[in-house]
Amino acid sequence: MGFTNTGTTAARSGTVTFATHIIGALGIDWATITTAQPLPGPIPGGTTKTQTYTVCVESWRVPLGMHVETRTATAAWT
């Protein structure tokens, strides 16, 4: 993911929250699991930093025939 600081001062720290959906074989959204990871910081003003994340879900939550989709990611700088 790319995180862009559109401001003029460095963004020092924050959290990215992922909403991962458990999808059944017929396309039904059975559950949404949220996980949070630290944002890559600091990011100087006017620049972009890229970070790769691994989102894990316990295997018992995804029975045979189901799959996971991470549909949204929300960033909050502190």
What would you say this structure looks like, in words?
With 78 residues, the chain is mainly β. It contains no helices and five strands. The strands form two sheets. Strands 3-2-5 form a three-stranded antiparallel sheet, with no helix packed on it. It has a two-stranded antiparallel sheet with strand order 1-4. β2 (14-23) and β3 form a beta hairpin. The model has no long low-confidence stretch (mean pLDDT 93).
Feature tags:
mainly beta; three-stranded antiparallel β-sheet; two-stranded antiparallel ribbon; 5 strands; 0% helix
Helix/strand order, N-terminal first: EEEEE
Low-confidence stretches: none
Shape: elongated
Beta-strand portion reads over 45%
With strands numbered from the N-terminus, the spatial order across the biggest sheet is 3-2-5
Radius of gyration: 16 Å
What is the typical, i.e. mean, pLDDT?
93
User: Level of helix content?
Assistant: under 10%
What's the β-strand tally? 5
Helix-strand makeup class: mainly beta
Measured distance between first and last alpha carbons = 19 Å
Query: Sheet with the most strands?
Result: 3 strands, antiparallel
Q: So how many helices? A: 0
